[in-house]
Design goal:
This protein has 428 residues and is of the alpha/beta class. It contains 14 helices and 13 strands. The protein has 2 domains: 132 residues, Aspartate Aminotransferase, domain 1 (Alpha-Beta Complex), CATH 3.90.1150; 263 residues, Type I PLP-dependent aspartate aminotransferase-like (Major domain) (Aspartate Aminotransferase, domain 2, 3-Layer(aba) Sandwich). A hairpin with a 3-residue loop joins strand 12 and strand 13. The relative contact order is 0.16. Its EC number is 3.7.1.3.
Length: 428
């Protein structure tokens, strides 16, 4: 057997698993026998630590009732800030620049309400054509709330191929009409990483505020938001961070903006020592906590207490290193085993530009995903013809990647996908 054949063998994949320094973390997650879960970029798996943390919060509720706000292992009154401090290393921020609150879209509304201050010629918001729809809905509604026509004042950078954005194209559109830029750190379809550092520098050179949607990057790649000077960022915590369905989101505000009045004011944006004075004039916190609005969703935040312990132990740089190894291996297997079956990889080949998942295009994508699920492989379908495959560093193995590609090869060779309709389900 040649060296090349050895590389694409199951024995080779098992050898990679043997050398994997993160392999022990798999035992910390609930995995189903016979199922290969490759959709952690949509919803991460439940960890035992997260389950324990939820039980602990429930016990505090049961035993302490309202005193749980200021007593117990994790007093709820300070939980949003505490979790923000635990998230800080994952986004490269100072401890008080991050707070766990709201949802990704709700936090975007808050941040645009706070940082979009049109004046003179600067009335427009710059986004892109490939971003997740919810961000675009929020930006349009914020423009309209300020009395601007969204179709004229939301500028969306085009993609030449429908999958990849060019940093130069984005910079070219940073004109003196742009007030705020909002971009994804990682594109949710292709997995492309934008050059956040360069884009931030270019925006600031033009006196433009810039923020990033980290939904598909947090917990998967390192960030240096404070060092880069990013003005704000927002994200969900239920994908790579395994915070559970509907988990509370998070936001970052650079310390240079501390003291800025929140656009959407609420009780939990108060200074802690003033909050229960019940005054009708808000005394806002002087850190990221000022951008909270309502009472923290304690039961939805609880899983993060346990989940973030795993990230602290594993380290984001080791996670990123294994993630790249997994997607590199997946790249190679697909190109070797599926080259005659009509798949086209639309993710960047460059490790510098590639996030934690691969995006495959195929004209039969919806029915192929259904066939994979019938075989115990859980991918993610994206209309009209995309398949996202996300091997997650903390709980997926190289052997699972090998099995996935070979199961997919069998589906294509046997044409078992033809048993299914080529249309998405209610939730893709």
């Amino acid at each position: 057997m040649s060296d090349r054949e050895t590389i694409f063998s199951l024995a080779y994949a098992k050898g990679l698993d043997d050398k994997d320094e993160l392999k022990y973390f798999r035992d910390e997650f609930y995995t189903n026998p016979g199922v290969i879960y490759l959709d952690g970029n949509s919803l991460g798996l439940l960890s035992k630590q997260a389950e324990t943390a939820v039980s602990s919060v429930m016990e505090a509720w049961k035993n302490l009732a309202i005193n749980g706000w200021i007593e117990g292992e994790h007093p709820w009154f300070y939980l949003s800030e505490l979790l923000g401090e635990k998230l800080a290393p994952l986004v490269g921020s100072r401890l008080n620049e991050v707070v766990v609150t709201g949802s990704a879209t709700g936090n975007l509304h808050q941040l645009i309400a706070s940082f979009y201050n049109p004046s003179g010629t600067k009335t427009k918001i710059l986004a892109d054509q490939l971003n997740f729809p919810s961000d675009i809905y929020a930006l349009k509604s914020q423009l309209e709330l300020k009395g601007y026509n969204a179709s004229e004042n939301l500028i969306q950078v085009e993609s030449l191929d429908g999958h990849i954005l060019c940093d130069d194209d984005i910079i070219e559109v940073m004109t003196d009409e742009i007030a705020v830029v909002v971009l994804p750190s990682v594109l949710y379809r292709s997995g492309q990483i934008l050059d956040m550092k360069r884009l931030t520098q270019e925006a600031h050179a033009r006196n433009i505020i810039i923020g990033f949607d980290l939904c598909h990057s947090i917990g998967a790649i390192p960030h240096h938001l404070h060092e880069w000077g990013v003005d704000f960022a927002f994200w969900c915590n239920y994908k790579h961070l395994n915070g559970g369905p509907g988990s509370v989101g998070g936001l970052f505000v650079h310390e240079k903006h501390f003291g800025k009045k929140p656009g959407l004011a609420g009780w939990f944006g108060s200074k802690k020592d003033k909050q229960f004075d019940m005054e009708h004039e808000l005394t806002a916190e002087e850190h990221a906590g000022a951008f909270q609005v309502g009472t923290p969703h304690i039961l939805s935040a609880a899983p993060l207490i346990g989940s973030l312990e795993l990230f602290e132990e594993a380290g984001i740089h080791r996670i990123r290193n294994k993630s790249l190894q997994l997607t590199d291996y997946l790249f190679g297997l697909i190109n070797h085993e599926l080259k005659d079956h009509g798949f086209v990889i639309k993710s960047p080949m460059s490790e510098k530009q590639r996030g934690a998942h691969l995006f495959l295009e195929h004209k039969e994508a919806a029915r192929i995903c259904k066939a994979l699920k019938a075989e115990g492989v859980i991918p993610d379908f994206r209309a009209p013809n995309g398949i996202r495959i996300a091997p997650i560093a903390l709980y997926n193995s190289f052997s699972e990647v090998w099995y996935t590609v070979n199961i997919l090869k069998g589906i294509m060779e046997d044409e078992t996908f033809k048993k299914y309709s080529n249309e998405r389900g209610v939730i893709a």
